[in-house]
Amino acid sequence: MNFIHLISALTGLSPTTDTTMKKKTTSTRLSQKLIQDVRCVKSEVIFGSPRNRCKGTGICKVLTLSAGQQPTRTLTYVTLEKNGKLRFDFVKDSMSADLIDFHFHNHLFMVTDDFYFPKPMLKALGVEELSIQPGFYQVAESGQFLSIYFS
């Protein structure tokens, strides 16, 4: 099955193959029909298995972003240092410029609500409890990271 017949099967339009001109017209008409039928949704994908609490491989969740809404996830390294200080190293390349500007404007990061780490994260960090309190936190920029120390 060639491309035109595959598109025809997907769209319900029948291709005309009499002349080269008709082929081009049909191909253009099919392409226009596909473009009209396509819906593209800006989304965030959480990898993993839904049956395994988003661990492993596959697609665990797909979250829709409304028009103008920016992705709200980023790759971050979380470190609990020996002195007890908690550091987040946000990978700049994993965020859009708009996301960086919104969350790290003027090298400040604002937390409006208490954040309590989930049990798997506490276990990974080797502690029983850990939280981040509301406030403004200084952001340090170094190479590929935006870093925050939470006290």
Strand-pairing-aware structural class: alpha+beta
Shape: globular
Poorly predicted ranges (pLDDT <50, ≥5 residues)? 16-21
- The helix/strand order is HHEEEEHEEHEEE
Going across the major beta sheet, what is the strand order? 3-4-9-8-5
Number of strands: 9
Strand content: 25-35%
User: Helix count, per DSSP?
Assistant: 4
Calculate the mean pLDDT score and round it: 77
Helix percentage: 25-40%
Rg, please? Answer: 24 Å
Please give the largest β-sheet: 5 strands, antiparallel
Distance between the termini: 63 Å
Can you give keywords for this protein?
single chain, 151 residues, alpha+beta, two-stranded antiparallel ribbon
Structure description:
- The chain is of the alpha+beta class.
- It is 28% helix and 33% strand.
- The protein has four helices and nine strands.
- The chain has helices at residues 3-11, 20-37, 97-104, 119-125, and strands at residues 43-49, 55-64, 76-80, 86-91, 108-111, 115-116, 131-132, 135-142, 145-150.
- The strands form three sheets. A five-stranded antiparallel β-sheet has the order 3-4-9-8-5, with no helix packed on it.
- Strand 1 (43-49) and strand 2 form a beta hairpin.
- The termini are far apart.
- Residues 16-21 have low confidence and may be disordered.
Summary of the model, kept short:
The protein is α+β, with helices and mostly antiparallel strands. It has helices at 3-11, 20-37, 97-104, 119-125, and strands at 43-49, 55-64, 76-80, 86-91, 108-111, 115-116, 131-132, 135-142, 145-150.
